[in-house]
């Protein structure tokens, strides 16, 4: 199976995609290539859009959500999502220095955002199993149980998109081409 097996759908070619395309356009102001690739599975496209809305309404601020999304995408080496969330992170007020640090997997200047980044990374590395010290550090930064669970929501959301982009070879949209990113030490995987 190669990337060409996953078409970049339009409204005419996607099975039952009209609703997903309409929702994506309402959420993002466009139909991203990710939605076009996911449209082969209408259930996946709808689930991703549902989770996007739920994550946007969670207890984490817009900047904190950006940290989660970029940390997960960096961990998974997702070129598409790193470009998309670098742009949206900057648009939500996440400082350029923090976005750049997340792109380079460096510590953040803001101590609370850094605690969040570390916790997300610990969750990913441990596949949900975290040390008591990791959880205590997250709580010490002012986060509680709701934020722990909202981090899991963000990880789930990004895992859906990161894995889709990996297997389907989703091309970066023109809208965030200026934020193009490539996983360090990984040769181009798209064919």
TrEMBL record:
Protein name: Carboxymuconolactone decarboxylase
Cited InterPro entries: AhpD-like (IPR029032), CMD-like (IPR003779)
Xref: SUPFAM superfamilies: AhpD-like (SSF69118)
Record domain Carboxymuconolactone decarboxylase-like: where: 43-106
Single GO term (MF): peroxiredoxin activity
Pfam families, alphabetized: CMD
